[in-house]
Write a structure and sequence with these properties.
Largest sheet: 3 strands, antiparallel
Helix content: 40-55%
CATH topology of the largest domain: Tetrahydropterin Synthase, Chain A
Order of helices and strands: HHHEEHHHHHEEHE
CATH architecture of the largest domain: 2-Layer Sandwich
Structural class: alpha+beta
Oligomer: single chain
Strand content: 15-25%
Number of helices: 9
Low-confidence stretches: none
């Protein structure tokens, strides 16, 4: 079917994907915008995964100050995020700067303790797994593994790990998926380096 150019531009404006990618997604989806967005998301995450091993040694430090007045001097809490990329050019791009600021807001609001699952202490992970021993007892191994993973995702990863948390701007997506989509759009690896959260009295 012939895809209307206005529909292509609408999809581009809503997703920031390339014109050709938008046209191909709409063609594959038969002109359905919702399906086209899902197709772009799936392909974007796949592209992002391919770039994830490249070195990211540039970037910026982003801040969020909660409750600050216009002069920024009366904040009661805040967060710092180190967001890395491959080049200084991308580090200065508006989309990258916006992502860094959003992640700082996310860190303050959701208070993650770790950036990724790999940073979780082994003892903490084993302690959490032990809580669900009765839930998986007697189940076939493949079922037990799925049940355990679902429990860990809900009660551990999504509470303490930044990459696994729901993104505050769209809780249907995880922070890690948002970053993968941005990697695909910007054609560079993007990595959260360090995070820190501060609050008066805590």
């Amino acid at each position: 079917m012939a895809i209307d150019a206005k529909l292509v531009m609408q999809l581009r404006n809503e997703t920031s994907a390339g014109v050709n990618d938008c046209r191909a997604a709409l063609d594959e989806a038969g002109g359905d915008m919702t399906k086209a967005k899902a197709i772009l998301k799936e392909k974007g995450l796949a592209k992002g995964a391919k770039l994830a091993d490249r070195a990211a040694k540039q970037g910026r430090i982003a801040t969020y100050i909660h409750g600050a007045d216009e002069g920024g001097k009366s904040g009661k809490g805040g967060a710092l995020v180190e967001l890395n990329c491959e080049t200084d050019f991308v580090a200065k791009a508006p989309d990258f700067i916006e992502l860094a600021k959003d992640l700082a807001t996310q860190v303050y609001g959701y208070d993650p303790k770790y950036v990724s699952r790999e940073q979780l202490p082994a003892a903490l992970l084993e302690e959490e797994k032990a809580k669900y021993a009765e839930d998986v007892k007697g189940k076939p191994p493949e079922i037990a593994e799925k049940v355990l993973e679902a429990k860990l995702d809900k009660n551990l990863y999504s509470r303490l790990v930044l990459m696994d948390m729901p993104y505050f701007r769209d809780e249907a997506m995880k922070v890690g998926d948002v970053i993968k989509a941005k990697i695909a759009t910007m054609k560079e690896n993007i990595v959260v380096g360090r995070i820190a959260r501060f609050a008066i009295g805590e």
